[in-house]
Request: fold
Amino acid sequence: MAEYICLFNKDTLIIKHPKKSPFFLRTIVLLFAMVCGVYICTICLRQISTVTKIKFHKVQVIERPSPDSNIVKQSEAQIPTLHYPKPESFSRGECTQNPVRFFAIVSMQRSGSGWFETLLNSHMNVSSNGEIFSVMDRRKNLSSIIQTLDKVYNLDWFTSASKNECSAAVGFKWMLNQGLIEHHREIVEYFNHRGVSAIFLFRRNLLRRMVSVLANSYDRYAKLLNGTHKSHVHSEEEAAALSSYKPTINSKSLISDLKEVEMAAARALEYFNSTRHMVLYYEDLVTNHTKLKDVQDFLGLPLMELTSRQVKIHKGSLSDFVNNWDDVSKTLNGTEYESFLCADY
Reply:
């Protein structure tokens, strides 16, 4: 681009350079902006990549434990299965949509199960139908057992305890020697398939249980209450009459007999370990009333104050109820069963 000359006077000569093109300046500014933009985008992308990795890592942690983990299984086991029975013998009416839980009280004779069942039946939403398998025909084979169970859990079993239409929990008592152990594999499968919750009730002081068993067996024939046999009583007078009989315990086989009962309870717990269950002891129910709350929680029931009219038959020191107490005491002293001699329950 040519230069041009300006003359102001004779003595002064000024030479001016031409102005730079606006296009050139704009190009420089644009290039600078592009460089800055590329730099900023690069920094942002690096930060986003880092955050994404962190978030992805966090999601992986949240997904643990896996659905088949022991923790999930244990949590699910705490929730009783809900059922909506459709009985053949009556209509549930407005209670058709009320869910029902199935349970079975698994125990041994003279372990407090009768008293415990009356406590449960004092709940307005519980129907526990007694010792239904005490009748031989109902447990003569596996088929008859399953038919009986289906009838109970379909609400087609009627007893004085039945609150069928709006029951929130229905069950019964089942003694270990009433076909339960003989068919334990099939019954465990049935419990798991039908969602039946088992409540195991045992007695810690097996010596007191033995005294109760012997006294009850004697009364079946002696009928001390005006010619009537009663396994449970509702007055102090009746309790005193039944406890007046003092059985004689075979001290020679005593320890082996106690061990046999212990093993029977342990075997039952082992067989039914895969079922949804809880374990109770008679002594704990007597001394710790919060145990009844635990039972209601286990069955998913609204909490209520549970009561029973039954009166304990053998109260006080065991030495007052055993004919050959000295022999029994000598046999158990120094053994693992020594504590049975002093326990109140």
Observations:
- Residues 22-62 form the longest helix (41 residues).
